[in-house]
Amino acid sequence: METSKVIHAIYTDDDVLMAAVKKVKANKYHIGEIYTPFPVHGLDKAMGLAPTRLAITAFLYGCVGLIVATVMMNYIMIEDWPQDIGGKPSFSYIENMPAFVPIMFELTVFFSAHLMVITFYLRSRMWPFKDAENPDPRTTDDHFLMEIPVSGNEKELHDLLVETGAVEVNLVNNTH
Amino acid sequence: MYTFSSRLKIASIALMIIGALGIGFGFMNSHKSLDDVKTMLAQEASGGHGTDTHTAAAQTEAGHGDAHADAASHADEHAEHVQHQIANRPWSAIYVAAFFFMMIALGVLAFYAIQYAAQAGWSPLLLRVMEGITAYLLPGALIVLLIAALSHYIGHNSIFIWMDSEMVNPDSEKYDKLVAGKQGWLNVPMFLLRGLIYIAGWALYRHFSRKFSIAQDNADDNRYFKKSFRIAAAFLVFFIYTESMMSWDWIMSVDPHWFSTLFGWYVLSGMLVAGVTVIALITIYLKAKGLLPHVNDSHIHDLAKFMFGFSIFWTYLWFSQFMLIWYSNIPEEVTYFVTRIEDYNLPFFGMLILNFLFPMLLLMNSDYKRIPWFVVMAGVVVLVGHYVDVFNMIMPATVGDRWFIGVPEIFSMLFFTGLFMFIVFTALTKAPLTQKRNPFIKESENFHY
Fold this sequence. Notes:
By secondary structure, chain A is of the alpha+beta class.
């Protein structure tokens, strides 16, 4: 339910921001987005954001990596061409497994790490030539910005935000 | 202040008594005459179990009529060997159990020193719990050394074969050139002296750190905290050297023909896992009784993370040691693992499930690490796994394929569990369970992850 107008409340301190978030939530307004120059601990909790599931994906990707390593080494070293290389027992996978563990480990980590990072990029919509979605360049330096969609309640929302200690409250057209 | 509940006290004393009876039974049951052993071996061979191919082979040879005398003397030798293994079993069982609990106390002491040296902000609430556990170190380590000494003076060098003076006597038929070459390090007086030096160093650190910790409670500046910091740093240096040498002396020398360079760290990693696990278990117990009101689930979460991390560290060292030796397959090194894989297959690989797979899968989830019963469950598995680890390090050298986890092993564990509980919980009653003036105590009380 996107509206055409949003309010941007700008803060200069993360503690003030946290208090403002709690107050805005208490007044039952929906916070569209918050832009901060650095991670503010506890902000996600105060906003009521759902916890990330990135760690779960990483675990599953790790499992994929382990399977890839196992199937690959089993096919190459045991099934396809079971050569005697320096007396290593290539009769079955388990017999020669200690030699494969470094590969199994590294591929597990490799898949887990890289696929999780790529998942993160996809989910956060980040790529090299992406246009920055920054409503105010100061939020990358020392300002914090809370964006709240409005629907005919500009006045009371404006007053509430000023009350929470916002240094600037602007009504702007929604750009996205 | 914690009071040692009478139920727990009675339970620990009962464990000690029951354990002592079982240990006594184990010793009485292990005296077998050579004839008894021969009858037993003959029964095993005819029973068709084929557990003893050695004797079976000797008997078939004897049946052919050739080299009759040779085979007979060979069978005699074999019976004598088995007789020794049977006699070694109660000694080894009690030694494994004693070492296991000593190792927990020592691991906790090292972890405790690290908390001071690193000026950790999360753990000061748990320092008194750790001090309680380390109270076991002095008696526990002395008992380990005492068992080692008694196995020489009363037993027949049942744990450490190099203690047999015949082995370094060139005129004896037991003469062993490799052991003789190591007698500069491996000789009984030096072994005992070194053991006493290690124990004295550890016990001194434990004594003074405890003293400063209590003095800090009533001080009006941070003088004692600074002293604790300094001795913790000094102790950690002393510890890493003595721990390494202790593991050569007390564990690796049961196989005097075998050596491994990362053995000391391997033993250390097991120590830290078992130590952190016991800290977690006792903390959860005391918290459940309402005695550690400021300890929150973030502290449990941190302890569980350490259990998880050190379990993986242990596995890393176990695998590094195993894989390097398996890969190069040099006969003088690989026998160590050959006997373990052949005779101890289930405990040897089973402990990987207990010590690696289980803690890894259970403690990977961040939410699970906050649930006390989950941590307790994982902790119990980890402790069983590390008992099996010590068992795997000692038993193959002393009892060989005559191992079993039966009366001597279980009752030794019961005895030392009782002793450990008794000493640790008695020590916990001696001081308030929370430090008062630790500069980081406020941070620890508000610790949140």
